Amino acid sequence: MNSTDNSPGKGTPDGLAADPRFKVVERTLKQYQYRADALLEVLHVAQETFGCLSDELMTHVARQLRVPPSRVYGVATFYHFFTLEARGEHSCVVCTGTACYVKRSAEIVTRLENEFDVKAGKTTADGKLTLSTVRCLGSCGLAPIVVLDGETVGRCTPDSAAAAVRVMLAEKSPARAETVRPVRRRKGEGQ
Ligand code: FES
What we know:
This protein is α+β, with helices and mostly antiparallel strands. The chain has helices spanning 14-17, 22-31, 39-50, 55-65, 69-78, 98-102, 105-116, 158-170, and strands at 90-95, 122-123, 129-134, 146-148, 151-153, 179-180.
């Protein structure tokens, strides 16, 4: 493939061309006929397929949709759903929005950071766990909230959150007492 061809539908970077997951992104670009207003949808598929949005991937999407790379980067960093770094095998997200913060979610973050030797926003050295924080998941009545591999666990304590993460790391589908569906929010909303 030619990485210098800027025509829509062409110019696949060499590093991506060999990756079978790239076909999924290409299909999505085609499906939306390389329209600039499909940026969110395309990034969504790219994120789900690759697990993160690399510079190479974002540059390619920008070229294909004919939008400035800065716009793609801006969207990718604006929404919590997107991440620019590879995630671990398991994900733990602690809500630090106002309701959860008041119910001491910061203590949960500290406890998880210490117990699993990972800073919020990072992945453990063994690639098993990504710990991150988010501002309000829309389930404030169950604060403080932790989301484990996409499942929301309400009314956590530092102890119960750490125990749930241990279970998650040991098993594929841990049983959790009180769960609600997470609501995707944009950064800055519901704080
Ligand atoms: S502040 Fe945590 S769910 Fe709303």
